[in-house]
Amino acid sequence: IMEIRTVAVGIVAIKGVESEYYLAMNKEGKLYAK
């Protein structure tokens, strides 16, 4: 299950509910968990 929240206009935070890792994107557009 993923939790999606708005941080600012055009910016969202996506977090795994159980793992508590955030899904992020680097400058090249690749996704990673942090």
TrEMBL record:
One of its GO terms (molecular function) is growth factor activity. It comes from the Eukaryota. InterPro entries: Fibroblast_GF_fam (IPR002209), IL1/FGF (IPR008996). Keywords: Growth factor. Pfam families: FGF. The keyword GTP-binding does not apply. The keyword Nucleotide-binding does not apply. Belongs to the heparin-binding growth factors family. This is Fibroblast growth factor. It comes from Ovis aries. The lineage of its organism: Eukaryota, Metazoa, Chordata, Craniata, Vertebrata. The gene is KGF.
